[in-house]
Amino acid sequence: MIELARELGLALANSSEFVHMKQAQSDFEKNEAIARLMQELNEKRDRLISILADEDGNDLEAVSLTNDIDRLEAQLKESPLYGGLILAQNAFSTVLSAVNDEINACIGAQTSASGDCSGDCGGCGGCKH
């Protein structure tokens, strides 16, 4: 059984969706402008967490940091590399969900298509329970 899981893992690693996702991650991570933006975003998040954890935290600074974080996140979301990464991650997630559904259907477990299964198989889409 472990050998079959290994084969499945290798097949997933060689899927076009996984390869595309890894390339999108690499492109995203190698971009200097995005790296600077991510560094600034993480620094501001860390500072905000520190302020919020401090009982005597500066409310005005927290508001300012929150606004900065929102602005930086919006900049990030406008990046074509970010959009490509999200699309690639979603495509691979869809593949993983389909694989999970197939495994669950084979063992009689709930699949995404059988989420509302009442146990009555009349008109059932095939959860195979």
Structural class: mainly alpha
Q: What is the radius of gyration?
A: 22 Å
H-E string? HHHHH
Number of helices: 5
Average pLDDT value?
A: 89
Helix fraction, binned, reads over 70%
Question: Gap between N and C termini, in Å?
Answer: 22 Å
Main pleated-sheet profile: none
Tally of DSSP β-strands? 0
- Please report which band the strand proportion falls in: under 5%, 5-15%, 15-25%, 25-35%, 35-45% or over 45%: under 5%
Shape: elongated
Q: Return residue spans where pLDDT drops below 50 for at least 5 consecutive residues.
A: none
Please give a structural write-up.
Helix 2 (16-30) packs antiparallel against helix 5 (80-107) and helix 3 packs antiparallel against helix 4. 6% of the residues are buried. The two termini are 22 Å apart. The protein contains five helices and no strands. With 129 residues, it is mainly α.
SSE diagram, text form:
Layout: H1 2-13, H2 16-30, H3 32-53, H4 59-78, H5 80-107
Helix pairs in contact: 2-5, 3-4
Tag the structure with descriptive keywords.
mainly alpha; single chain; 75% helix; 0% strand; 129 residues
Quick synopsis:
It is built from 5 helices and no strands. The chain has 129 residues and is an all-alpha fold.
